[in-house]
Every structure is written in C-alpha cells, then in structure tokens.
Amino acid sequence: MLVLARERMDDILTNHKPEPLSAEQERSVQRMLTDAREHYRKEGMISDEEWAAYEVALENAP
C-alpha cells in the first residue's frame, strides 16, 4: 500500500495543474491573511521583527 500511495503522490505532484484563483478569490485570501495578521499582532502573537518582515514582503509583492 505504501508503494502505491507514494506512486500516486508522485503522480499528483508531477501532473496536477490547479486552476488559478480568480482576482476576487485572490483579494479575499489577502483580506483574510491581513485580518489574521492584524489580530495576531494585536494579541501579541507576532513579534515586532515578524511584523516588520511582513510589511517589507507586502511592499515587495507583485
């Protein structure tokens, strides 16, 4: 069974081509991530360094 499962996993990883998210779906995901990060920041669960890295990543995002 493990060999079959591994072969199936390899096939999926090699051949699966997921459908891209629509622009609205992408915006929705980004809103959820922003809301979550802001919540964790407010609760003190994201350090200042992590928050700064997040802001830099947002500035450099395409």
Question: What would your notes on this structure say?
Answer:
By secondary structure, the protein is mostly helical. Helices cover 76% and strands 0% of the residues. The N and C termini lie far apart (43 Å).
Secondary-structure blueprint of this entry?
Blueprint: H1 2-15, H2 23-42, H3 48-60
Label this structure with key terms.
mainly alpha; 62 residues
Q: Looking at the structure, what is the overall shape? A: elongated
H/E series: HHH
Terminal residue distance: 43 Å
Look at the helices and sheets and give the structural class: mainly alpha
- Mean model confidence by pLDDT: 92
Radius of gyration: 18 Å
User: How much of the polypeptide forms β-strand, as a percent range?
Assistant: under 5%
Q: What is the count of DSSP helices, taking H or I runs of 4+ residues? A: 3
Q: Sheet with the most strands?
A: none
Percent helix:
over 70%
Briefly summarize what is shown.
By secondary structure, the protein is mostly helical.
